[in-house]
Amino acid sequence: MHFHPANLTDVQSRTRIRPYETKLGERILVQAELESSGPRFALFGVKEDLGARANFGLGGAATAWDAFLNAFLNVQDTPFLRGQEIQLLGHFDFTVLPNHTDVALMRQQVEQIDAEVSALVSQIVGAGKIPLIIGGSHAGAYANLKGAALGMRKNKPDAVVNCINLDAHSDYRIMEGRHSGNGFRYAQEEGYLQGYSILGLHENYTPETILEDLQQHPGIQFSTWEDIFLREKLNFAQALEQSIAFTQRGGNRVGIELDVDCIENVLSSALTPSGISTQQVRYYLYQTARRCEIAYLHICEAATSLENGLENRSTGKLLSYLVSDFVKGYLERNP
Prior knowledge:
Blueprint: E1 3-5, H1 8-14, E2 29-30, E3 41-47, H2 50-53, H3 64-72, E4 86-93, H4 103-126, E5 130-134, H5 140-152, E6 161-166, H6 183-189, E7 193-201, H7 208-216, E8 220-224, H8 225-229, H9 236-247, E9 253-259, H10 278-291, E10 294-300, H11 315-333
Parallel strand pairs: 2-4, 3-4, 3-5, 5-10, 6-7, 6-9, 7-8, 9-10
Antiparallel strand pairs: 1-4
Helix pairs in contact: 3-11, 4-5, 5-6, 9-10, 10-11
């Protein structure tokens, strides 16, 4: 196993104590063991970029977790957001796996990552908590969907998950071996994912064969960035409304996926100069948490540094805003 349980000493060293203030790091529950009572959210990180590299992308997604944690633990603990609602479990570190450039071998390693992450997600959901999964490549979507479905099957044997994915890409490539570009197809083909909605898909990076698959599949709904912002067939709020309505079908819980490569100028393996604003992304996470029956949250592909040398030290702070918005939206609906 590549899981490292959270350590109270580490959390305390990351939390900057100030007089007359209380930070989340002073109130968050630091414990790897899951209990049915206590905090409603279980937070863990994933350090890996194999999924992106196995999809011919850039490495770097393994760098997000530590930067996020440093920022998130120093968010103010106030009536808007209480640390006692969150349990910090720890993180997976898959950067210790043998490093090579053989795509076939990397895809085999992604299967190993799938198994470990899905097992933890299943345990969290089975304990009645909501996983907050931060970091890693978008290969993790498969593990999240599988784990959430299996966790719910402890009480409902036929449980499946619906999903909203704010992303420039569909990640619905063929089943050619596991990587960041096909997690949703694997999850749907294997019976874990039922309704799949993609918000803000970029037409420039969607192959025609995949576009045809998306259009013909009754279990898939999508809106393109161009329809929203160029053609103005609908605005962002209306597109989000369509995604929420589509994934409310069947009484299934909804996994919320965010690939930060959809956000303008945020460092990721597929950095884009044209995309969604940070304000729109924050709105997305707040609204989905407030209005959907949540299965989990996954924020992926973010990086503080990429293997090509690009760096951005503000990534962790952005991720802390996003997780905070999601938790606030959920708690406002479920006080």
